[in-house]
Design brief:
Layout (H helix, E strand, L loop, with lengths): L22 H9 L3 H15 L7 H17 L5 H13 L8 H11 L2 H7 L7 H14 L3 H9 L3 H17 L1
Helix pairs in contact: 1-2, 1-3, 2-4, 3-4, 3-6, 4-7, 4-8, 7-8
């Protein structure tokens, strides 16, 4: 993928469809050991790489770096797998295409999400992290409808409706 020192980063757009040089935040994340700063950087990335279904090339090219950094730092923040899921879902919709020459490498890099999730087997998963991890796995395996459904399970309202659906389904069996 594109190295963080490459000037191309300055030309990429993020989720707001404006130029966003994500390499600055990615470099800071890579070297930071302060948990507060790491959380702030993840919030910045989450805010700028995805906005209401919109993503850009900065969003795509940042994901392999986020996964590698997450693995190296053993980050267990729900935002990492969630970003992977929502950006991958959005990439398949009405958003810029990943340049063809990067697509195979990009998809291979995203498969490393399983290593990040595996590292986090040592920690207690909260519901939000479980949903994010499962959705990310589905998304990188091109199971986009499943990834979207899993993300929706975060909503208590959707969960209640799903439980009612299961109950009614069992009554008819």
């Amino acid at each position: 993928m594109i190295e963080l020192e490459n000037p191309l980063w300055e030309t990429f757009e993020g989720g707001y469809k404006i130029k966003y040089d994500v390499s600055t935040a990615l470099k800071k994340l890579k070297v930071s050991s302060n948990q507060t700063e790491i959380n702030e950087l993840l919030n910045e990335l989450f805010t700028n790489l995805y906005h209401q279904g919109d993503v850009g090339l900065a969003s795509y090219f940042s994901l392999p770096h986020l996964i590698r950094t997450g693995i190296e730092k053993q980050l267990d923040n729900w935002q990492l797998p969630t970003l992977i899921a929502i950006i991958e879902i959005a990439r398949q919709k009405n958003n810029p295409q990943m340049p063809a020459e990067y697509l195979l490498e990009y998809k291979n890099e995203l498969k490393q999400i399983t290593k990040l999730i595996d590292i986090n087997q040592k920690t207690k998963w909260e519901r939000t992290y479980s949903i994010a991890a499962l959705s990310a796995i589905a998304a990188v395996n091109n199971q986009l409808d499943l990834a979207e459904i899993i993300l929706e399970m975060e909503s208590d309202d959707i969960l209640k409706k799903f439980k009612l659906f299961l109950k009614s389904k069992n009554e008819f069996e």
